[in-house]
Amino acid sequence: MSTTAIATDLGLKPAATAATASRSVSSVEVTDYDNRQTVGKIVVDNAKMICRGVNVYYGEKQAIKNVSLDIGANEVIAFIGPSGCGKSTFLRCLNRMNDTITTCRVTGQIKLDDDDVYDKSIDVVQLRARVGMVFQKPNPFPKSIYENVAYGPRIHGMVNTKAELDDLVRDSLERAGLIKEVEKRLNEPGTSLSGGQQQRLCIARAIAVHPEVILMDEPCSALDPIATAKIEELIDELRENYTIVIVTHSMQQAARVSQRTAYFHLGDLIEIGETDQIFTNPKHKLTEDYITGRFG
Amino acid sequence: MAISQDAHTVKQFDIQLANFRNLVLEMGGLVEDQIKHAVQALDDEDITASREVISRDQIINGLHVKADEDCVSLIALRQPLGSDLRLIMSLSKIVTDLERIGDEAEKIARMTVKTYDAASSPPSAKLLRDVAPMARLASKMLHGCLDALARLDVEKAVEVAQGDDELDQEFQSALRRLITYMMEDPRNIGHAINVIFIIKALERIGDHSKNIAEYIIYLVKGKDVRHVGMDTLVQDALAQ
Amino acid sequence: MSKPNATAVPTASRDIKTIVNATLKRRHAAERRFRWYGLLAISLGLIFVLLMFGNIIGKGYPAFWQSYIQLPIKFDAAILDPEGNRDPHAIENADYAALVRTGLRALFPNVEGRVELRALYALSSSDAPLELRQQVMAHPTLIGTEQEIWLLASATVDTFVKGNIDRQAEEDHRPIKDNQIGWIDQLQATGKLKQRFNTILFTSGDSREPEQAGIRGALMGSFYTLLVTFLLSFPVGVATAVYLEEFAPKNRWTDLIEVNINNLAAVPSIVFGLLGLAVFINFFGLPRSAPLVGGLVLSLMTLPVIIIAGRAALTSVPPSIREAALGMGASKLQMVGHHVLPLAMPGMLTGSIIGMARALGESAPLLMIGMVAFIVDVPKSFLDPSTVLPVQIYLWSDLPERAFVERTSAAIMVLLAFMILMNGLAIILRKRFERRW
Fold first, then answer.
1. In chain A, which residue's Cα lies nearest the Cα of C248?
2. Chain A neighbors (3+ CB pairs < 8 Å)
3. Is the pTM of this model over 0.95?
4. Hey, is the C-beta of A280 within 8 angstroms of any chain B C-beta?
5. CATH 3.40.50.300, domain A30-291, yes or no
6. Interface confidence: ipTM more than 0.95
7. HEC per residue, chain C
8. How do residues C46-70 score in pLDDT, each as one tens digit?
């Protein structure tokens, strides 16, 4: 029996079948594209960072529009969204990496525990020691593996003796899951490692100063799937001790590593919620269109 | 109910999804026919038609396998998320239920063959009295949920789910009547057991149809309404 | 895709094939032609370079050899030490020229008459008595003995021996007379006139006598001048580049400074010389002709080059390294000091060395501050009057003697050798310290 026959049986016109078949479903509650009010619960019980009404301007252009969200302690929160949606910009506000851009202006409030990140009394050096960062492209210093990891503790004066520093370096490499691979070659240049190893070295370097929060800006975009899987596994392990904010272009990656997901669109925080809810049952039309690949 | 008319950026994904849905609908249509023909053959005491129904179940089984393949390949190749994910998961479950319904139709046909092929005399009409109304109810439910699936119509799905209670009551009362007949005259027992199998099959068709209706509600609304009370189901399904 | 399209594709591809084929020949021809132009340009350049080197080396090579005459010198105690008490003062002031004359007469006992004798004495250099004095002062035991000693021949003899005076020319038209030629032939025949390596070129200062003139004074002058230039311009240049590139706010003032630095690099070097004359010598009263002033002037000239090269080296450090350092909580100075500067250093050094090489070859601004004087003594400090290699070349190129023509080319060869050395150093530094990231 052909499809047409069934359609007739169902009391439908044959022509309508194809149309209906290509139609898709959505359970979204906000169907209005122009509604840019954040959907979902922005507040969490044990917040590590609290952002309220954050605006970011590059000169005249507003890159982030009134974004409020909480980042819970020991959670992995993923920022997703199309290119230019401001997710990286927002991430860089969290440890004031945007300060290096002279035209960049940030308003609103970002708090790390009880300290206002943008308060005059906060020194960026101290802030960045507390909020570490891992970048898109693995960027180890052109120095030895040991020196890469030892750099942070050294400049912050965290250790007094060589033995303490050795321990700290080994411990950081171990927590980054790299120690087995580099144990015998700590004095070789960090740049001699493979891409994935370099990125784990950068993570080891970041955790060597015992930060409270780690920001990751598309940490796997330059890596192959195996290296990516290793980083993802590492992120999951690190969650025990750190709060992790990850920006990613890969929705699958956000789904795999994060507990909560925030969707940004043209500088607005469109939707935030539990990761499985965002990826199975988003509440905003824009989120739905983005994650199902209907964008634009 | 919100329905996105937008196409995917990847057109091939749209085509694959549409093909998968059409396959499920085609399977639904076939299953519906099977029930119709099985019940008709029973009514007509037509063994040949029943045998045809039995053999046609293979086609449904084939479609079931094909649908599962499509489903696996869609998940593997497209990594669906959001409503696409719900659609594919729901359809894959609906396919299983449709295949079971097909099996129930086959069961009815087998019982028909068994009943009328035997050397003994055919059963009296009163034993078969409840089959026709129950078959009508079951067919209506199946048709309703296929309709709801084709239109992604939650209200229709709710209607189908609600219809299951009526069918269950019909089944209970038919069962009581058959027990009475069996107690009246032990010679009826053989035929009555066959009839019980038939009406049990019809009752199962209702259950499967209800499952399908629940999947449709999940698909459209994103809410799992299985194993909740009918009140919650209706409330969840129709909530805006 | 609809059916007509599907069939249209092969036709189109056939079309494109013929269309491309039609233009292919022309395109290849253009490419070949361009390659020929390139080859032509390069070979033209090469030919000029070879011509220049050939000319300079051909002219300058003989200057590294010098004629010496072996004379039997009788260290007569009556002349050297008439008192017999070995008084150094008396020995120093003795008539050594008489020893040379006696030696020459001993070789050619037949020569007589004032004119003939003067011609004979002219065979040896005026430096010969000084050389003898030096030897006697060093070894007073020589007095009273007779030694065969190699003494410097005069420049005319040297020029003749090197074949630069035409033997066939009329006697009046050549600086060397027939009888002198006869003696020279005789000396050569007996092996008493030989060419030896010209150490004087590297050990003595300038002189009016070509056979005694050397470049040591100019070399030391260049060394002191460049030392001042490097010590001044490198730290200042690097600091300026780092500040402008990493710390300075981007505003109208820094833009103005940037434009001015670029302009400074294009200012003609003679202007720096005038500036040096006006400011360092006339205003600050620093001594004329001193390497210190020369170094100051050349610093002004080299600074913009170092700053521009330094900034280019800094910008070539990838931003990811800066981000990594800042992300670790490094302060800006730590970021620059620990990461950016070490990575930019090879580039900065290369730029500086190339700037220094330019300074080494510079003569115009130094003319303005008096480093063009005739200075015989080798400078011993930053304040001694001195000249530099390119200026020495300029000075010698003006002199008429044939022997100075040789020396000019020889000095050019030395200067070029230093240039190549410095550029080679720049390349080695770049290769050695260049790091991958």
1. A102
2. B, C
3. no
4. yes
5. yes
6. no
7. CCHHHHHHHHHHHHHHHHHHHHHHHHHHHHHHHHHHHHHHHHHHHHHHHHHHHHHHHHHHHHHHEEEEEEEEEECCHHHHCCCCCCCHHHHHCCCHHHHHHHHHHHHCCCCCCHHHHHHHHCCECCCHHHHHHHHHHHCHHHCCCEEEEEEEECHHHHHHHCCCCCCCCCHHHCCCCHHHHHHHHHHHHCCCEEEEECCHHHHCCCCCCHHHCCCHHHHHHHHHHHHHHHHHHHHHHHHHHHHHHHHCCCCHHHHHHHHHHHHHHHCCHHHHHHHHHHHHHHHCCCCCCCHHHHHHHHHHHHHHHHHHHHHHHHHCCCHHHHHHHHHCCCCHHHHHHHHHHHHHHHHHHHHHHHHHHHHHCCCHHHHHCCCCCCCCCCCCCCCCCCCCHHHHHHHHHCCCCHHHHHHHHHHHHHHHHHHHHHHHHHHHHHHHHCCCC
8. 999 999 999 999 888 888 888 899 8
